[in-house]
Amino acid sequence: MADSLDGSRALDLDAPAIGDRFRLFNFTRRDDHVAYLWVLRAMERLRAVHRVQVDGDDVMAALRDLALVHDEVPQLDTGLRSRLDALADDGIIHRLEDASRAGTLERYRNRQSVYQFSELGYRAFVAVEDVLAARVRDANLSRLVFSDILDDLKALAAANRTGDQEQVYRRLSRLNQVMEDMVRRSAQFHVTLNQIVNSTETSPELFLRYKNALLVHMSDFMAELDRYLPRLDRAVRDVEATGVNTMLVRAADADDRPFLGTVERIEDWKRRWQALRAWFTSTPGQESGAADLRRATRAAVSGVIALLRQLTEAQRGGVNRASELRHLAQWICNAPDEDAAYALASAAFNVGSARHLGGAHDDVEEISSSATWWDAPGIEVALTPFRTGRQAGPGLPQPVRSDTGQRADLRRRQIAVRAAERAAAESLAARGAHDRVLDEAETRVLMSLLTRALEARSVVAGRLKSGSGSDDTVLMRLVPDVKGGAVRTPHGMLHLPGFALEIVSRSGRARG
């Protein structure tokens, strides 16, 4: 919901754009990141007095002013220029050339650079400063904001009804800012409270000191939210009754952002209004954001009460988790030897050796890969790994069984295949490979001979001159031919540019 309010479109950025924006935080990962932070603070100090473009001397003067107030400012008499250039390379500031600052020819020849924050760079710097300035005790729920939101909604409906364009813009802008602040505060408060409740390092004294104020704070917030939520729902619907589209157009016309067109401004205000409406009005099947906040706050109250009960019982009985762990650590340290200490720790934390047995089912497709071990059917496990934990051996070697009939049948098939290949080779030698269509057997023999010929080819001056391949029946040569050759097979035409085939029987004449 917060993304809808603050207009974040980070999900729409591609990977290169995200990488460029992460580069703005490179100064936080350098060894002298504190020095870079003070350089940016000096530039921000100058920016606050409308010194947008500054050079190295201006930044150095601002650092000296900061050093008078803060002892943590580092001495940067040397290396300031390189740090400014590094920040410019990261894109957090812009580096510009300003020849007007050169008072002499020598200074003109030397590069006179001026620097200013980039828009995204300044936002990155402010984000880092916000993180550094954040304090846990600053988290709170703003219960007084609901009355302001209700007044703004009523004024918005009246302004839209009377056609006061500027008042519509002011009220929508104020509502957007108030909602952003409320969402940020509530998110920060619940994250901090969840950390306090679930952390094992919570100080009982600190928690018990502020428990009453914390419970009162959350109770007052829920009471105020319950009281104002029906009124806010009616106020939102009253605004919609005056015409949402008309209101958005009026707000866009009064919006003076120069870098957005009219359509873009209308879409932006439409998105903001839809986010605000989703916070205070419910739709069928979906609760409002305020209802979700109320449910989260009630759950947080329950968590605080549970933690309070736990701490109270621990203080009353004198035994809690910390004291138990301290006593256990003392027992382990006082154990007579290492084996006894290990046995005591294993018994305390229920640590024991587990023997896992498993295997594959005979029919893998019968068992779904998503089935758990609890639901899947069992399999048979050998007694050796079950009893001893060791894998069962292969056992005694079995005698080799010879199948004379199967071997004889395999030999007959091999002889028949070899005879067919020899007949096909003799047919190629007798009838040649050109000017006819080869059958399947002749094609296989030809491709085998051609493969051997290409593997044994000879290349002279970068050109193929000759090649030959043979078996125990025929010999095939690649003969240079200006016209080239072609062989027709059952699967198509095989072209041999620049060559013709000459097939010679080892016991007879040759055929082309």
From TrEMBL:
Q: What is this protein called?
A: TIGR02677 family protein
List the taxonomic lineage.
Answer: Bacteria, Bacillati, Actinomycetota, Actinomycetes, Streptosporangiales
InterPro entries given in the database record:
CHP02677 (IPR013493)
